[in-house]
Specification:
By secondary structure, this protein is an alpha/beta fold. It has five helices and four strands; from the N terminus they run αβαβαβαβα. 39% of the residues lie in helices and 17% in strands.
């Protein structure tokens, strides 16, 4: 059966539901950026170190939502983790993510 959604790819994941179902939130900004403000409960793993944390994250057996300042670095990190076989989602900018899960 034809489905128009197939023309445009998968629908965007419901980040709020993924978070509410126990996903881990990782902020991939620098340590200094993270210290200046972050989403409560987020873990700071800077983008340049994320590849070295794949096995540790795999052991947690949870989906991962990645955030940063604008969504660009979290997008790169999401691709790194997805390519490693993890269930990863780009949550975008951390302030936007905070608003999304609060509503």
């Amino acid at each position: 059966m034809f489905n128009i959604r197939n023309l445009f790819g998968k629908p965007k994941q419901n980040i709020k539901a993924i978070y509410q179902n126990g996903a881990m939130v990782i902020d991939v900004r620098s340590t200094d950026e993270f210290r200046a403000g972050h989403f409560d409960g987020a873990v700071n793993i800077p983008l340049d170190t994320i590849s070295g944390k794949v096995e540790n994250l795999r052991q947690k057996q949870k989906p991962v939502i990645l955030v940063c300042r604008s969504g660009a670095r979290s997008g790169v990190a999401t691709n790194i983790l997805k390519n490693a076989g993890l269930d990863a989602y780009n949550g975008g900018g951390w302030t936007s993510f905070k608003t999304t899960v609060a509503n």
